[in-house]
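Quarterly update, task 2.4: cytidine-5'-monophosphate-bound model.
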Amino acid sequence: MSNKTVVLGVTGSIAAYKAVDVASQLTQRGINVEVILTEAATHFVTPLTFRSITARPVITDMFRLASVFSVEHVALAEAADLIVIAPATANIIAKLAGGIADDSLTCTVLATAAPIVIAPAMHTGMYENSVTQRNLAELRRRDFTIIGPIHGRLASGGIGLGRFAPPSEIVTTICHLLSRRKDLIGKQILITAAGTHEAIDPVRYIGNRSSGKMGYALAAAARDRGAHVQLISAPTSLPKPLGVEVIDVQTAAEMSSAVSEKISRADILIMAAAVADYCPVKIRKRKVKKADQRWDLTLKRTPDILAETAGCSPRPLRIGFAAETENLLRNAEAKLNQKDLDLIIANDITIPGSGFGADKNQVAIIDRSGDIEELPLLDKTEVAQRVLDRAVKLLAE
Ligand code: C5P
């Protein structure tokens, strides 16, 4: 980490004192830490505190020449390998979402191409306000990494969501982001995501609970590591990841033909989609009118897309998911063998806060030799990185 520069932006929250610990932990890892305090932050912590920890000048004012950087916000924006804003108030989040640049920190963020991490800390009401949530959604769309806030005791004395994430968690995430290599440059990755819709009539369909978050996280992570990514997506409300070629499909049959069309150029296929196993035998052209008697719907099997790609040549690395409610590892391993996969990602969808629809996932990665890597409950973005780490290793072999 010794050749890395992190810009630490501190804003005016009572949690500002915890940013001192973030600065200290980063400095101890040999990272060059350049601190920018907003005017409000200087009321909670002093520049001298950060200067003593980082042994670097601290920027508090755009118009004072405090450091060796010539035009500070531009120089720091370019020097940064990563920018972290910790704590981030509702105010800075709103400014960043709106593109406002009225102080050193906002100018630096606006001018940078480096990854940006924010750790919000505020009163629960401010955090849950729809304006703040909309602003955070905008930052997520622009690939900001958002850590926390967590649930716990707040400065107001109450208990709720809004507490600053533990500094050690922030530092771990920063180190992970800094150590990611561009190890998928020149690779073509085909990813499927979300749950297919199998039409019954023009109004109704058979669907499932997949949100698409895991597949979309994989697509964004592969793109960040330099891959050319094609994402075959079943319906979802998620925004399309920038810099990824998205092919929209509705049904298992459409997904199957899109995969067959694209697979010959793929180095890696990751089937994260929840493909319907059955679809109606007959799709009604007109809406079926409701009646008093019961309605029996006859279903047929859909193609098993992943299994069908087993014999394709050239053969890409093939990775599947197994969402299970019982006998997780045994069922997942059986699927890996049946579909002749290189890796299978097993997730127990009964774990609260994990799997379908959630932002986190607790998975085990199983390979052909039967080796099982059990991961803790992680953000889907982090699970995506771990899956890609394994794929990169297998490609190298
Ligand atoms: O057999 P099962 O549906 O549990 O297998 C899950 C894996 O197979 C997932 O990777 C899923 O995307 C893929 N699959 C498929 N075609 C289907 C059903 C599942 O490619 N019809």
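Highlight for this quarter: DSSP finds 13 helices and 21 strands in the chain.
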